[in-house]
């Protein structure tokens, strides 16, 4: 027997499609959250509290994404079962999620100038005081070793940051081997500062570039998801009222 198409069946399909868009926006947020937590932004840990907001925002992105996926599924279920209460719950919840996403995007954009202006001095002082090199690798030193090797840079501003630092007083070296272009070579002796041996540029501007990229990516993700969800929730509300009238 052929399927009978009615206005109600069309509305159900429309609601299912719209809730699918909401769920997809949630998946996008989850992906951005994972990227922010485990991707390049993890290198910015050496900036300390100045960049901690990125990791917290990544966690929030994960949470908001999961909530959006659940709301999309709940909305689909409500449309299928013609449940007025479920649809109303999803619409109201989506409004709250939208407000949180726009707020999070705004906070991320506002915090970046603070990182740019404050982090340099803080990172410089902390490096000179706490960095120990490769011989006694604590968590902080290990993070810096990874940054210098991955980003091909040396210190915060340049290799002179280690002059008079606790690292130099402990090891007698002018710079750690993470600054070397070829770690393990004879020339990489902790004293030869030739441009052929060590990276002359510091890491701060490269870390700041990662922070800037991540900030705009997360903000764009939040705002993009908010646009999709606002569009979806608006038509879900209209179609839901027609379906359940």
From TrEMBL:
<keyword id="KW-0812">Transmembrane</keyword>
<comment type="similarity">
    <text>Belongs to the tetraspanin (TM4SF) family.</text>
</comment>
<keyword id="KW-0472">Membrane</keyword>
<keyword id="KW-1133">Transmembrane helix</keyword>
<dbReference type="InterPro" id="IPR008952">
    <property type="entry name" value="Tetraspanin_EC2_sf"/>
</dbReference>
<dbReference type="InterPro" id="IPR000301">
    <property type="entry name" value="Tetraspanin_animals"/>
</dbReference>
<feature type="transmembrane region" description="Helical">
    <location>
        <begin position="14"/>
        <end position="34"/>
    </location>
</feature>
<protein>
    <recommendedName>
        <fullName>Tetraspanin</fullName>
    </recommendedName>
</protein>
<dbReference type="GO" id="GO:0005886">
    <property type="term" value="C:plasma membrane"/>
</dbReference>
<feature type="transmembrane region" description="Helical">
    <location>
        <begin position="54"/>
        <end position="79"/>
    </location>
</feature>
<dbReference type="Pfam" id="PF00335">
    <property type="entry name" value="Tetraspanin"/>
</dbReference>
<dbReference type="InterPro" id="IPR018499">
    <property type="entry name" value="Tetraspanin/Peripherin"/>
</dbReference>
<feature type="transmembrane region" description="Helical">
    <location>
        <begin position="86"/>
        <end position="112"/>
    </location>
</feature>
